[in-house]
Amino acid sequence: AEEAAGIAEDSEVDGVVATEVDSAEDVVDFGGGDRGSFRGSPRGGRGSPRGRGSPRGGRGGAGGMRGGRTVVVEPHRYEGVFIVKGKEDALATRNMVVGESVYGEKRVSVDDGSGTSVEYRVWNPFRSKLAAAMMAGLENVHIKPGTKLLYLGAASGTTVSHCSDIVGQDGIVYAVEFSHRSGRDLLNVAKKRPNIVPIVEDARHPHKYRMLVGEFAVLF
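Given the sequence above, the corresponding structure tokens read:
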């Protein structure tokens, strides 16, 4: 009867019956890990629930930039946007508020050749749809120095802050956000960036904020 069931031999190991089987259909999962599934099965395999650092995620954040002592900053084909070339290339904008980060992004300072240090903010495409579109090769973003931009759905101001860098002092960003929680963060960003006009209103009802918006050339 045992041979008909595909069981070749039974042996006792540490008080648990270990059975050799002929096919995968005869395998019974006792809830243990891959290694030692019979021996010590209540505790699982050796380290299987944790793995190597799996709960804490991989090393470094998505879109992060590995630091290096030597970096080169080159103009991107989009006016007002730059490429920081190091161990890994990254998008960046020239920081309008030197020494300040908006969402914990990295900053890079380089000598412009005349002894003056210029600071750039790395633009994370994993936190900005506009940056992701640029990385994907969007033909034209229509946002450049001097642009007057109406930005709907500004959230906490992550992308808006980079648009602020791009349009510069001669441009303006009308940033509309419906959420009051995100709107508070947006207001804090605008306090240090005079070219951002924060508007906490529902973008679907422009009549509620039309008096706050002047002429603009680009709608995003």
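The first helix runs from residue 129 to 135. Try to locate this feature in the token string yourself.
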